[in-house]
Amino acid sequence: MTNKLQEIKQSIVVAVWFMFLTFPIMVIRVNPIQGVIQWRWENMAAVGAGSFGLSFLWRYLMRKREQGQKAAEEGRETRSFSRRLMEDRRIYLPALAAVALGAMVFPFAFSSYQVNIMTTALIYVVLGLGLNIVVGLAGLLDLGYVAFYAVGAYTYALLNHHFGLGFWTVLPIGALMGAIFGILLGFPVLRLRGDYLAIVTLGFGEIIRLILENWNEFSFGPSGIANIPRPGFFGVDMSLEAATIYIYFLMIAMTIFTIFVVNRLQNSRIGRAWIALREDEIACQAMGIDKTRTKLTAFALGATWAGMVGVIFAAKTTFINPASFTFLESAIILSIVVLGGMGSIIGVIIGAFILILLPEYLRAFSDYRMLMFGAIMVIMMVFRPQGIISGIRRTYQFKARE
Fold first, then answer.
1. Which of 312, 255, 292 is nearest to 130 (CA)?
2. Alpha-carbon distance 341 to 309, whole Å?
3. Does some domain include residue 267?
4. Same domain, 97 and 216
5. pTM to 2 decimals?
6. Of all residues in the chain, what percent carry a pLDDT higher than 70?
7. Contact, 251 vs 126, CB < 8 A?
8. Residue 52 has pLDDT above 90, yes or no
9. Which terminus, N or C, of the chain has the lesser number of Cβ atoms within 10 Å?
10. Strand-pair partners of 225
């Protein structure tokens, strides 16, 4: 009780301090034409109430965090709701069935606009899971991931424009091109890590974007490529609404396929090598793991998903230009992985839905989008540096034979 009173007292001090600091900006408005001073006391009340609430919430969360750290130090096991959700069959099986049913019904219950938004969110789910291989599992900070996305999109657009190749023919070619570019990026950065790796990958992403923007004969420059055909279904003519629903289900299938493959990769020999590389590169090499092959595999497989999704993106929008593949896209995909939890499949899915759907449904705050990104990231780093749902650390126990 004493602690709570102390927290309330400190929050009141913070609120008063913020009201004092923002007083000249938020309260006083001078109209020089009419020579009138307007006093906006309601703004002062809003600043006071907001800063008091945020300060109190911050202190509450800090107290909960300290309690959690103390429990962990004393060896007391505390299972969070997310852990229970993933481990208890009585919870996750009904939840999975409800999600599957909702996904099937969604395009028939909502408008084409809502279906388009959900398809975009699913695209970012697959992109996040692809980057999760590189950043979350292998621990290689890649800030140029959008380049592979652009490679896939332009592969479909250019092959269709020059040779008339269809969506289903180009989809594996886009994946292959993504993998090749992943290896091309992976070779020069084999000896790099940390900040240096981030700078080089950022430069790679910008090089790809600048080539697309300035090489007009090859990529049609900033004008982009239009009239890219949507994916076909055995030659059936589809209306715009039917095509939207078809691409939605295509993305559902792609997401399930990606989750299956990434989950299998996590538990495979190469997946354990990625995790070992992420935890300690020197120890990983000392244990006999081929560091070169492990890194190149991570870059190639991560880029494969970006290449495939790039093809689907080009088919969905029917128009692409370099403005769709800026550094901001890489930052959003990386934010999805960090917010969701590096190495966690469920976490990345939740992170993608939060970061893609929230700005769409909160358009009133679109001007503050980047500010919200920054605030969410700072809060996450303070209270949950491991993300919304952290990857489960595997432990192995060896028991002597009786």
1. 255
2. 21
3. yes
4. no
5. 0.80
6. 89
7. yes
8. no
9. C
10. 320
